[in-house]
């Protein structure tokens, strides 16, 4: 779901309103949130700046709590002239690991060369290797909030000003895309004495529980990018065919969509999850259309709105649902999944795991359940994707993962 918006930050433009968090669902594409920039062939991992660690406060809003933890950050000082200091560029980390590759590439690095900026990237608390607590128990997640994250940034800025002995004229410029885009805007609003300006790229500023507009943007992007209604018509037709065949011939859908278990064993939530999964694959296609992020497998570089819509609208190739299934199979291959796992229970089980892992799905889920919502429901595009993943399905997930409030 990790989906929101901007001004051109990192040398690519998002077409869509943000997608926040979505990539984290089980059986879904794992490349959902803002990934690393495309790698230059001649650049090896050992050229990247090393991680540094900052002693951060656990709870900025308690005067008696003196607990500290180590927050990860990266610095590129190459463009900076300490005798004639330029601005400080601060890339705000989001709902996934910070990535050192951003320290050498991206639009902000091009700007840094022009302005002789000092570049710093700070990882968001509870993501990547920035672990404020021993585990991710619901109790421990009480310190995970955008307010704490903003206070982390403010305290970090003050400490760096001391560390680098920066004078009061130094200008901090915050950068962020998607959720960090929101943070960038909020940081400037909340701490104007510390932050001179912010570049808020695709930042969703309105927390909305039922974010039904998301799929509207997805559908509009198909129209606008192809200049025709045909792709939307075929997609709608495919979903209608799937719904009909789920009643008359579920075996064909099982086979074409390569599901891991038969629908006869599926619960109501499994079915909702199935429809949500196939809709999400299309949403990912649109959200990351023709971006320039690192792609592990160049075979899938041609998976774009135009090529997929062309396939869907081809007069040959059988009924619409089969063509959608072909796209679905490509996504499974691309993400190395042998079958489409639409099991609700295994998704919930994964999200209940309180051990630190790399992805951050549980953490983002916590943030959506407690502060943002941002649920990309089917309610805005019932005609195209059916009406299977409504708000109550997402609220149910919050309760099943973290317990009823
Ligand atoms: C900073 O980025 C530039 C441009 O990519 C790179 O050449 C340089 O090695 C980087 N410096 C550090 C300390 O990583
Ligand atoms: C999680 O961490 C807390 C300490 O922060 C500890 O008390 C608790 O036992 C841990 N839970 C598990 C299941 O390890
Ligand atoms: C992308 O290219 C591969 C092989 O080059 C081809 O098999 C596949 O159908 C193409 N995908 C689309 C969506 O055109
Ligand atoms: C899938 O597997 C290939 C080959 O093992 C690997 O190069 C690629 O990174 C994997 N892709 C994902 C998304 O895990
Ligand atoms: C919980 O997550 C950790 C880290 O990703 C993993 O190693 C472990 O196997 C998971 N535990 C269960 C019960 O799935």
UniProtKB/TrEMBL annotation:
Name of protein: Serine protease K12H4.7
Pfam families the UniProt entry points to: Peptidase_S28
Similarity remark: Belongs to the peptidase S28 family.
Annotated GO biological process: proteolysis
Organism superkingdom: Eukaryota
Residues in the signal sequence: 1-20
Alphabetically ordered keywords of this record: Glycoprotein, Hydrolase, Protease, Signal
């Amino acid at each position: 779901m990790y989906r929101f918006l901007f001004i051109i930050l990192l040398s690519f433009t998002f077409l869509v309103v943000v997608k926040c968090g979505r990539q984290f669902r089980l059986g879904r594409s794992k490349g959902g949130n803002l990934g690393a920039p495309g790698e230059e062939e001649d650049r090896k991992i050992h050229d990247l700046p090393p991680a540094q660690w900052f002693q951060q406060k656990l709870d900025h809003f308690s005067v008696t709590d003196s607990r500290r933890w180590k927050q990860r950050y990266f610095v590129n000082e190459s463009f900076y002239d300490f005798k004639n200091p330029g601005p400080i560029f601060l890339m705000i980390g989001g709902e996934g690991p910070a990535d050192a590759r951003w320290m050498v590439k991206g639009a902000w690095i091009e700007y840094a060369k022009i302005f002789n900026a000092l570049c710093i990237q700070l990882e968001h608390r509870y993501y990547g290797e920035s672990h404020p607590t021993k585990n991710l128990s619901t109790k421990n997640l009480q310190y995970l909030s955008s307010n704490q994250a903003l206070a982390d940034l403010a305290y970090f800025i003050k400490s760096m000003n001391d560390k680098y002995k920066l004078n009061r004229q130094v200008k901090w410029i915050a950068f962020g895309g998607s959720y960090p885009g929101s943070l960038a805007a909020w940081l400037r609003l909340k701490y104007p004495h510390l932050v001179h300006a912010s570049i808020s790229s695709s930042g969703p500023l309105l927390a909305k529980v039922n974010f039904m507009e998301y799929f509207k943007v997805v559908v509009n992007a198909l129209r606008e990018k192809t200049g025709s209604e045909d792709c939307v018509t075929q997609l709608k037709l495919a979903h209608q065919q799937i719904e009909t065949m789920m009643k008359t011939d579920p075996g064909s859908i099982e086979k074409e969509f390569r599901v891991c278990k038969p629908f006869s064993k599926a619960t109501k939530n499994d079915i909702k999850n199935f429809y949500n999964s196939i809709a999400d694959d299309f949403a990912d296609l649109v959200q990351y259309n023709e971006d320039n992020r690192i792609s592990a497998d160049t075979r899938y570089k041609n998976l774009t709105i135009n090529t997929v819509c062309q396939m869907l609208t081809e007069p040959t190739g059988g009924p619409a649902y089969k063509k959608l299934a072909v796209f679905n199979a490509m996504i499974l291959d691309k993400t190395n999944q042998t079958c489409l796992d639409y099991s609700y229970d295994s998704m919930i089980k994964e999200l209940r795991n309180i051990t630190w892992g790399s992805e951050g799905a549980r953490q983002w889920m916590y943030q959506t359940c407690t502060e943002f919502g941002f649920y990309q429901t089917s309610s805005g595009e019932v005609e195209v994707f059916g009406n299977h993943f409504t708000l109550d399905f997402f609220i149910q997930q919050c309760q099943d993962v973290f317990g009823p409030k």
